[in-house]
Amino acid sequence: MTIEEPQGDTVSIIPFHLWPAQHEALDTIQREPQVIILKARQLGISWLVIAYALWLCLFHGNKTVMVFSKDQNSANEMIRRAKGIYNRLARKPIDMTVDNVTTIGWSNGSRIMSFAATEDAGSSFTASLTIIDEFAKMRYASDLYTSVKPTIADGGKMIIVSTAKGEANPFHQLWSAAVNHLNNLVPLFLPWSARPDRSIDWYAAQESDAISSAHHRQEYPATADEAFVSIGEDRFLSSILLWDACEEALPPLTEHEPLIVAIDAGVSNDSFGLVGVTAHPTRAGCYAVRIAQEWKPPQNGKIDFRGNADAPGPDWMIRNVYASRFALIEVVYDPYQLESLCADLMRDGIIQCVPFNQGKDRLEADKYLYDAILSNPQKIWHPDSPDLRRHIDNANRKVDPESRKLRIVKREDSLKIDLSVCLSMALYSAKMVGL
């Protein structure tokens, strides 16, 4: 059997002779029904896993292998690798009968299928083997795992493979639970030295070219703890007492005060946040939080964005309360999930909705919120809001190394920060329109 090995600007075809660490990984994969592999980069584990999947299909009938990657191109690359190994076999045990970009299959009824990581990818299939590649870098990791797990309920196997990307993601959660024997996954860690041709001198040369030692240790860890180091992230506020210092009793919002509302939401596992900001009613040059609402998804369900008078959702509140009773200027929103809702608000003549760029503008907005809280005196004031306080306390700040701006991110995937993101967008928009 042969695989591809990059050699400078070219790719060479080489025999796949297993290193000791690869033998250990293969033994674990064959022996255990569910395996989670934390690895350093470029150890040939993706090749090993797809080769195992190919062997399973060629020598066992009616097997279905599902391969999930962070995007469709990455998933299709795994199919391409499997097909390449098969095509280079000197003797092919069975004929290939299905051959396209996303699926290959053979005359014995076995097949390998590729999927991009989405919220319900692969949920309609039953798998003999499920491979989840680079799990830590998947956008819908929690939803995907929840969707895919039942596909192996009838005796299938699962292999999760990834390099690390900090602690605020499901891969770290599953790894930690596996290490502590709290789930059915068997953990396997492969350090940078698992590749026999790597020496201390090689490691030092690689580190000298890295952005930082922390970045290097994440990609080429010697221990699992090194792999999960968080790069450039600290708590958004070093102490929640800094936020508490901005609290004061505010008079009720009046119908004459110009109001900016910001909304942010996920579809299922995230909450829906809505925050309204005005100029401070008495402090010149300052701003005040006047609204902070959170909608949580029901168990095993999704948030009803619309709602009604008995159970008002964010759409109902914007239409029937904020736009009709107050001087609402505009609604700013994260366009990823809320384009349809905001298009309907504008189509019906309710309010102007403005998409908020989640790149450069978010970096500037998050930094502006941070500075407004820490300035002396503070520029942002708020009434008591336990939900907003909790979302602020859940947030980390990730510093952009080029602009020195920062982004609000989750400290843990299970924590909610939607209201803090809404506050950032609303405050920055209030500044930009000159409230």
3D structure, described in words:
This protein is elongated. Strands 5-6-7-4-8-9-3-10 form an 8-stranded mixed β-sheet, with helices on both faces. A 6-stranded mixed β-sheet has the order 16-15-12-13-14-17. Strands 11-18-19 form a 3-stranded antiparallel β-sheet. Strand 12 (258-265) and strand 13 (272-279) form a beta hairpin. It has 2 domains: 2-231, P-loop containing nucleotide triphosphate hydrolases (Rossmann fold, 3-Layer(aba) Sandwich); 241-433, Nucleotidyltransferase, domain 5, CATH 3.30.420.240. It is of the alpha/beta class. The chain has helices at 20-31, 45-59, 72-87, 141-148, 170-179, 200-208, 213-219, 224-227, 241-244, 314-325, 335-347, 360-374, 386-394, 418-433; strands spanning 2-7, 10-15, 34-39, 64-69, 96-99, 103-106, 111-116, 129-133, 157-162, 186-190, 233-235, 258-265, 272-279, 287-295, 327-333, 353-355, 380-381, 395-399, 406-410. The chain contains 14 helices and 19 strands. Helix content is 34%, strand content 24%.
Keywords, separated by commas or semicolons:
24% strand, alpha/beta, Rossmann fold, 6-stranded mixed sheet, 435 residues, Nucleotidyltransferase, domain 5
